[in-house]
Design brief:
The protein has helices at 17-31, 74-93, 108-117, 135-140, 144-156, 166-175, 191-195, 218-232, 245-253, 270-279, 294-301, 316-320, 331-342, 351-355, 360-376; strands at 2-6, 35-42, 49-52, 55-62, 67-68, 71-72, 99-103, 124-128, 160-163, 183-184, 206-209, 236-239, 261-265, 282-285, 305-309, 325-327. By secondary structure, it is of the alpha/beta class. It folds into two domains: 2-188 and 359-376, Glycogen Phosphorylase B (Rossmann fold, 3-Layer(aba) Sandwich), CATH 3.40.50; 191-357, Glycogen Phosphorylase B (Rossmann fold, 3-Layer(aba) Sandwich), CATH 3.40.50. The chain has an eight-stranded mixed β-sheet, with helices on both faces. Strands 13-12-11-14-15-16 form a six-stranded parallel β-sheet, with helices on both faces. The chain is globular.
């Protein structure tokens, strides 16, 4: 296969889950003899066209800031999509790609990829990490109808849709393609890398890692931990940064066991995050909005006891299965499960065994099969 991935951001020059997925799958497909090109912004040093490992990187736009006031820039998304249209169209008309895989967010690249493929037989595969629906109201405020309209339009573009979880597939089916048209290929992890991540000098009994936003419900975790910390002489480490950081630190200052809680901020080296997972006994993230939840898979690979929230907007139950615990997103429920886990309670399924199904090798094999089905018209 000759595959073109379209993503304004490119791993490892800009970190993030969507671009890391492209890198990991693309690298393995290239190892299997496929030709893989990633079209993105010019975030790397050197010429616009370079080889990075076994991947071809093609800059179709200069580097640019992705965020405006903590929100993804609409101007940046439009600019990238417009700049990508010409180079991608030229390559497709020269039959240089068997298919194009467009990472959905921020939507416009999907529309651009579809326009570039007009007049050709090149299938457009899309990868849906989340479907926002009403989440736009809080994210864009008065501009929410614009966000919803673009999301709905993107969902209705003729495409071969992939979702990273069943819950994301179900949400997508509500606004676009029928559910039986949507394939599920999960996000992945490097199990071996996680198992060999260097341990920190000081670890924590309980760990949270993620962006500090309201949906992650770290405030609930802080109160729950405070209520059981004394019984276990336990410590809690909070890794991450975000708009909630000041409020959470103020909340912590008023807790009885504030001295047993530490905010580590954003860790530049992700191996440090993985090392903290290996050192922790419990990984707790009561997030109520997860399109997949990669940290759950990583924590299982690190042999943590995982505690997640039971919520219809979270794919945690799909990822964890019986290899962790799902609780109601309340202080009492989280505290009860923390108490049990710190007392040595373990899930019925081995977390290490469960984590194996998300190893990038297995995920790339699934993606390869699905991509070939799109090319063959056997979707």
């Amino acid at each position: 296969m000759e595959i073109g991935f379209v993503s304004n951001v490119v791993h490892p020059f800009i970190t993030g889950g969507a671009q890391k997925r492209i890198h990991e799958i693309g690298t393995r497909l290239a190892d299997n003899g496929h030709d893989v090109t990633i079209y993105g912004r010019h975030y790397w040093d050197g010429p616009k066209q370079v080889r990075y490992g076994n991947l071809h990187l093609q800059a179709v736009a200069p580097s640019a800031d992705l965020y405006t006031d903590d929100r993804r820039s609409i101007t940046e998304a439009l600019d990238f999509s417009a700049r990508a249209l010409g180079p991608l169209s030229k390559r497709l008309r020269a039959n240089e790609h068997d298919l194009v895989v467009a990472s959905v967010f921020p939507y416009f690249p999907v529309l651009s990829s579809k326009l570039a493929a007009l007049g050709t037989d090149t299938p457009i595969v899309t990868t849906w990490h989340e479907v926002w629906r009403d989440y736009w109201d809080g994210y864009l405020g008065k501009l929410a109808p614009f966000g919803k309209a673009i999301e709905h339009l993107t969902a209705r573009v003729p495409q071969y849709p992939i979702a990273v979880s069943g819950i994301t597939a179900d949400r997508l089916a509500e606004i676009g393609p029928s559910r039986d048209r949507i394939k599920v290929v999960p996000n992945g992890i490097d199990v071996e890398k996680i198992r060999n991540a260097p341990l920190p000098e000081e670890g924590y009994d309980v760990l949270f890692a993620g962006r500090l936003i309201a949906d992650k419900n770290v405030a609930l975790l802080l109160d729950a931990f405070d209520s059981i910390a004394e019984r276990h002489d336990a410590t809690l480490g909070v890794i991450g940064d975000g708009p909630e950081i000041d409020r959470l630190q103020k909340q912590t200052a008023g807790l009885t066991h504030a001295d047993q809680i530490e905010f580590l901020g954003f860790l530049d080296d992700y191996e440090d995050v993985l090392g903290h997972m290996r050192a922790a006994q419990v990984f707790a993230s009561p997030s109520t909005r997860e399109g997949f939840g990669i940290t759950f898979a990583e924590a299982m690979a690190a042999d943590c006891t995982v505690i997640a929230a039971k919520h219809p907007e979270s794919a945690a139950s799909e990822v964890i299965g019986d290899a962790g615990y799902l609780v109601e997103p309340t202080v009492d429920a989280i505290a009860g499960q923390l108490d049990a886990a710190l007392n040595g309670d373990r899930p019925s399924t081995d977390p290490l065994e469960r984590a194996g199904k998300y190893d990038w090798d297995a995920v790339a094999e699934q993606a390869e099969t699905v991509y070939q089905r799109a090319i063959d018209g056997r979707w």
